[in-house]
């Protein structure tokens, strides 16, 4: 059951694009919304239709959806197959939900940084002059979040093989855990990180030479039926 927000004169919108910085921006927005006790919305815009998303994009969308549920976000908004200018879309969403503050990330790998160049911000200010903008300079990931050492994520599955869990890349007939595998760059083995969503929460485990290193990190519900 959602907590009833007391302040409805304030409302925050976080704009996220693909990359590990999305979670940081969402948590920043959640912190601000908690302090103000106001609604929080998450927006992602993509010119591609959802069915055309690759595994990496789909993985980020699932991650943000799960995080939105975990943080009691008012609504996660995905506008796919969107052909209009991004600033028009943001302005429309801001007006619809009476947004008073917008958070946009700025990093070397963020599409939002490219958008922010030129007249983008000026156009937004003209479209929605009543909104305060927070341009967040996203810091370099910490040691346990250095995703630039991994290849692009691909859809994968964890399956039980005897007393171990093995990574597979084709949909198996047996019961499996579906997620996204990020392989380490420069290795011939299937070493990397496997991320999956369960019960509206994101989970992350390490894979070494094709096998799960930390079965104890799997939710208990997975261990019982697969054993």
From TrEMBL:
Entry-linked Gene3D superfamilies: HUPs (3.40.50.620)
Domain UspA: 11-129
InterPro entries: Histidine_kinase_KdpD, Rossmann-like_a/b/a_fold, UspA
One Pfam family cited in the UniProt record for this chain: Usp
Protein name: UspA domain-containing protein
């Amino acid at each position: 059951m959602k907590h009833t927000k007391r302040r409805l004169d304030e409302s925050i919108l976080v704009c996220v694009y693909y990359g590990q910085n999305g979670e940081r921006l969402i948590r920043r927005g959640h912190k601000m919304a908690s302090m103000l006790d106001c609604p929080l919305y998450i927006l992602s815009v993509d010119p591609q239709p959802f069915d055309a998303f690759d595994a990496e994009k789909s993985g980020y969308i699932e991650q943000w959806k799960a995080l939105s549920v975990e943080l009691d976000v008012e609504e996660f908004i995905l506008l796919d197959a969107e052909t209009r200018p991004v600033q028009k879309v943001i302005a429309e969403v801001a007006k619809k939900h009476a947004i008073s503050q917008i958070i946009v990330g700025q990093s070397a790998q963020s599409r939002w940084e490219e958008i922010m160049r030129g007249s983008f911000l000026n156009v937004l200010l003209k479209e929605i002059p009543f909104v305060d903008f927070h341009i967040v300079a996203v810091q370099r990931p910490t040691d346990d979040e250095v995703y630039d050492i991994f290849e692009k994520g691909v859809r994968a599955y964890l399956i039980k093989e005897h007393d171990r869990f093995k990574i597979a890349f084709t949909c198996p007939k047996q019961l499996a855990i579906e997620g996204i595998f990020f392989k380490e760059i420069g290795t011939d083995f299937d070493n990397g990180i496997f991320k999956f969503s369960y019960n509206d929460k994101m989970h992350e485990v390490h894979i070494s030479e094709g096998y799960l290193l930390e079965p104890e990190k799997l939710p208990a519900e997975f261990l019982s039926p697969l054993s």
